[in-house]
Amino acid sequence: MSQEGAQDYVESNNETVAGMRAAVIREHGGYDKVRVESVPRPSVEAPDDVVVRVRACALNRLDLFARQGVSGPGVRAVRLPHISGVDVAGEIAEVGPEVKEWRSGDRVVLYPGLSCGRCEPCARGEDTMCREYRIFGEDTHGGLAEYCRIRAKNLESLPDHVPFEQGAALPTAYTTAWRMAITVGELRPQERVLVLGASGGVGAAAVQIARRVGAYVFGVASGEDRVQQLRGIGANRPIDRSSEDFESVVAEETDGLGVDMVINPVGGATWRPAVRSLVVGGRMLICGATIGDNPEMSIREIYQSHRQVLGAPLGNRRDFRAVLDLLSRGELQPVFRDTMPLEEISEAHRLIDEGVAFGKVVLMP
């Protein structure tokens, strides 16, 4: 499959093609390097293509990386010009000739993992382990536009009673948090969990999911306002990192034993104190490296205490459907800041980059 229009419809000079508004990155740099402009609208190309009218799109770190030009282990450089946007909810506008299960007007939410469907990992349902794995909005144009194009197999139905902004806040953050806590971490009732970066999208999702399981949750954030917001979503013991040391708090409140699980989407200098905060035999789940991917630590603190470090990035389709089912039944409410118009895309980047927002930031194209 082609790159879902990586350079095609943005760079098209065909004046007969209908236009749309899109947040386009044409060069790497600061917040001003992502701008809303008019570009040609995508259309169906492959027979299994679907064009979606985007009603809501949530931001992720991947959007910031695309603008900044970040690349390296686990982060692929984007091809410019680029439209990012991984988390999309909207309505079907057009379907390819081989698409039978969807029709124009259907409300949908997109699963952002792009897989071949043929390799051994795909055969056992592990989409994100696919040998040809890519991410919608990173390796292809994404949903920070009025329309986007994706394969029909990546769609899930969004019930009429679920607002588009809630649907868009779900895919990356909640699927990742579910993968970490439930699928890989196998969190159990009464276990103690330390969630780092708990005011971010994945962190807030992890707090909610862990509390739903019946775990006791320590949540780390900065500032009294975020501490109060963490209490509001169920954290048993919010920790204000601006005035408290999370390793000391955990040690004191667990009589020196530590927590059973650490959920760490942050990376960097948090690794060593996070590992030391684990009980003997505890596990740390990792999915990100927001503040660094090269931590300094002693591996003896892992193996001598029977601890585990487990990678758990974006979950598979089963993980996605699990959180979507909870959302559909009203048992999970995604945490997001007030919605913003697409024209405020630069400000939305700033809110994420500077850690101002609690939970997700959702744009409404």
Oligomer: single chain
Radius of gyration from the CA trace?
20 Å
N-to-C span: 27 Å
Q: Domains counted in the coordinates: how many?
A: 2
CATH architecture term of the largest domain: Alpha-Beta Complex
Order of SSEs: HEEEHEEEHEEEHHEHEHEHEHEHEHEHE
CATH homolog superfamily of the largest domain: Medium-chain alcohol dehydrogenases, catalytic domain
CATH topology of the largest domain: Quinone Oxidoreductase, Chain A, domain 1
Averaging pLDDT over every residue, what do you get? 94
The helix content is: 25-40%
Organism: uncultured Rubrobacteraceae bacterium
InterPro entries: ADH-like_C, ADH-like_N, ER, GroES-like_sf, NAD(P)-bd_dom_sf, Zinc-ADH_QOR/CCCR
Domain Enoyl reductase (ER): 29-363
Enzyme class: oxidoreductase
Structure, explained:
By secondary structure, the chain is α/β, with parallel strands linked by helices. The protein folds into 2 domains: 8-169 and 336-364, Quinone Oxidoreductase, Chain A, domain 1, CATH 3.90.180; 173-311, Quinone Oxidoreductase, Chain A, domain 1. The protein has helices at residues 8-11, 61-68, 120-123, 164-168, 171-184, 201-213, 224-232, 246-253, 271-276, 300-303, 317-328, 345-353; strands at 19-25, 34-40, 49-58, 87-95, 107-110, 113-114, 134-135, 147-151, 155-157, 192-195, 216-221, 237-240, 259-264, 278-286, 308-311, 340-341, 362-364. The strands form 4 sheets. Strands 3, 4, 5, 8, 9, 16 and 17 form a 7-stranded mixed beta sheet that branches. Strands 12-11-10-13-14-15 form a 6-stranded parallel beta sheet, sandwiched between helices. Strands 1-2 form a two-stranded antiparallel ribbon. Helix 5 (171-184) packs across helix 6 (201-213). The longest helix is centred in the middle third of the chain and has 14 residues, at 171-184. The protein is globular, with a radius of gyration of 20 Å. Residues 29-363 form the Enoyl reductase (ER) domain. One of its GO terms (molecular function) is alcohol dehydrogenase (NAD+) activity. It holds the Pfam family ADH_zinc_N. InterPro entries: ADH-like_C, ADH-like_N, ER, GroES-like_sf, NAD(P)-bd_dom_sf, Zinc-ADH_QOR/CCCR.
